[in-house]
């Protein structure tokens, strides 16, 4: 089974938001996170955790007019600089050049279809992606207008293999790493405005998707996609009060 430091494994979530304290209140109330604060090169960094498992960080970005709140999915790599070089060689772009933190090195890049993602080398506390506790990251998913280009890119950068299944007028791709499913991909829905770029989204594990969606509304969030069932799993797409979009996932074996 892959671990948090396996090259190509989803390993961290990072939120740039206009109001960290309000955001902390929202996710603590919704997902049960406890939050600690640490200094960072960009200011105070608030980290949400379930027990000892750190799930993601939240901070206010350098002020940029019109910059939306957004969750960035970080993937573990063995060498950030080597991965950045590969990404540039095969058509990706660098949004934030590699730099060092206290115990890690990171960079933010975009794949050739325009989706932003982070790269991280270091030693996370443990693999929250494989943890099965509510409130932790359960799944990450790419929405793109060019699945073929994305498939080629991630195979080269992360060593992922793609398995695509066809449904009623739709298809869904599961990316695997060493035999484990690590991410999904689907074609961007036609109704999404053309100016919206490809993007990665994160889903958090919950016991009850409907109750979580209702609670999000109580906390000032918005339900983008109401709780929906697919193959026994239930999911919902939500937006926090500062505009960051994320998903919640209730597995079939947790159905109520």
* Overall form: globular
Q: Runs with pLDDT <50, length 5+?
A: none
Order of helices and strands: EHEEEEHEEEEHEEEEHEEE
Give the CATH architecture of the domain at 10-122.
Roll
Q: What's the story with the biggest beta sheet?
A: 8 strands, mixed
**What is the SS-derived class?**
alpha+beta
Ordered list of secondary-structure elements with their pairings:
Elements: E1 10-16, H1 20-31, E2 34-40, E3 43-50, E4 53-59, E5 70-76, H2 80-89, E6 93-100, E7 104-110, E8 116-122, E9 137-144, H3 147-158, E10 161-166, E11 171-177, E12 180-187, E13 199-205, H4 209-218, E14 222-230, E15 233-239, E16 245-250
Parallel strand pairs: 1-4, 5-8, 9-12, 13-16
Antiparallel strand pairs: 1-5, 2-3, 3-4, 6-7, 7-8, 9-13, 10-11, 11-12, 14-15, 15-16
Short description:
With 256 residues, the protein is an alpha+beta fold.
Which short descriptors sum up this protein?
256 residues; alpha+beta; 2,3-Dihydroxybiphenyl 1,2-Dioxygenase, domain 1; eight-stranded mixed β-sheet; globular
């Amino acid at each position: 089974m892959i671990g948090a430091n396996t090259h190509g494994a989803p390993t961290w979530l990072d939120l740039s938001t206009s109001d960290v304290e309000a955001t902390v209140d929202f996710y603590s109330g919704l997902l049960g996170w406890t939050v600690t604060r640490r200094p960072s090169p960009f200011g105070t960094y608030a980290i949400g955790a379930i027990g000892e498992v750190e799930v993601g960080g939240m901070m206010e970005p350098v002020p940029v007019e019109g910059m939306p709140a957004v969750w960035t999915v970080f993937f573990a790599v063995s060498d950030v600089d080597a991965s950045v070089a590969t990404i540039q060689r095969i058509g990706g772009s660098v949004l934030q050049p590699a730099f060092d933190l206290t115990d890690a090195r990171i960079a933010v890049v975009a794949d050739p279809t325009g989706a932003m993602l982070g790269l991280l080398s270091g030693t996370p506390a443990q693999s929250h992606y494989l943890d099965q506790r509510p409130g932790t990251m359960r799944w990450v998913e790419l929405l793109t207008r060019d699945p073929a280009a994305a498939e080629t890119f991630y195979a080269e950068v992360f060593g992922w293999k793609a398995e695509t299944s066809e449904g009623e007028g739709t298809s869904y791709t599961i990316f695997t790493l060493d035999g484990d499913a690590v991410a999904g991909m689907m074609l961007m829905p036609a109704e999404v405005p053309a100016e919206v770029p490809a993007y990665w989204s994160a889903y958090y594990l919950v016991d009850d998707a409907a109750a979580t969606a209702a609670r999000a509304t109580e906390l000032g969030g918005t339900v983008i996609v109401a709780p929906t069932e697919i193959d026994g799993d239930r999911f919902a797409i939500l937006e926090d009060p500062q505009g960051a979009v994320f998903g919640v996932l209730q597995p079939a074996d947790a159905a109520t």
